[in-house]
Amino acid sequence: MGGETPKQFLALEGVPIVVHTLRKFDRADSIDEIFLGLRPEDMDRAHAEIEREHFSKPVRLVRGGASRQETVALALQEAPSTAEIVVVHDAVRPFVALEMIRQVVEAARKCGAAILGIPSVDTIKQVERQTILGTLPRERIVLAQTPQAFRFEILKEAFDRALADGYEGTDESSLVERLGYTVEVLMGSDRNIKITKPSDLPLARLFIAQDHNQAQHQEEISSW
């Protein structure tokens, strides 16, 4: 994203992106406790933002590692052994719907592992450097999103095995898949964007405005 501010702390309507995301999980009935993985140098900043919000659920800060996988592994170590379901979500996906959080948790309860994904609308090419090796069937491609939800013991086993094997995955589902577990894919949303580049910010601001207008409309209806 450029600049010195980590992307999760960039402001949308005066509020850091990560706080918008935390608000969603604080409101989700299926979530009991939240662990936020951070770089050590971002801990104080995050603590101040969380104190300002007065969340209704515990939000525990975890010092992260050098990679996403290491950071999630460290957060997983902090989770209570009595946890039934663990949900992993990108801090920069603030527009996930509460219903989607509920659905992915319920699916993980039933089948052990579930993620959100959306069909690809583009043609997918398999390449090596600048040479096309083939065209992948679009109807068999989904673009993975978060949240991704798993039974605690399944995700713990997947991370332990990845560490032992020196395997680095691109998401939590990839660690679980390699052990032979079935991962269910639920329909995600085009609104559930991951804010990763400057061109994502105008769209994010549009979504914030839409959410604000919808909430205001609902308040007006309830006051009639």
Task: Give a quick precis of the structure.
Helices cover 40% and strands 22% of the residues. The chain has seven helices and ten strands.
Q: Could you characterize the architecture of this molecule?
A:
The chain is α/β, with parallel strands linked by helices and 224 residues long. It has a single domain, classed as Spore Coat Polysaccharide Biosynthesis Protein SpsA, Chain A, CATH 3.90.550.10. Helices cover 40% and strands 22% of the residues. The chain has a four-stranded mixed β-sheet with strand order 5-9-6-10. Strands 1-2 form a two-stranded antiparallel ribbon. The radius of gyration is 18 Å and the shape is globular.
Question: What labels would you give this structure?
Answer:
single chain, 224 residues, alpha/beta, Spore Coat Polysaccharide Biosynthesis Protein SpsA, Chain A, four-stranded mixed β-sheet, two-stranded antiparallel ribbon, 10 strands, 40% helix, globular
Name the helix and strand elements from N-terminus to C-terminus, one letter apiece. Answer: EEHEHEHEHEEEEHHEH
Helix content: 40-55%
Low-confidence stretches: none
What is the number of independent domains?
1
Main sheet makeup? 4 strands, mixed
Outline? globular
Task: Trace the largest sheet across and list its strands.
Answer: 5-9-6-10
Average pLDDT across residues? 94
Radius of gyration: 18 Å
Strand content range: 15-25%
**CATH architecture group name:** Alpha-Beta Complex
User: In CATH's first tier, which class applies?
Assistant: Alpha Beta
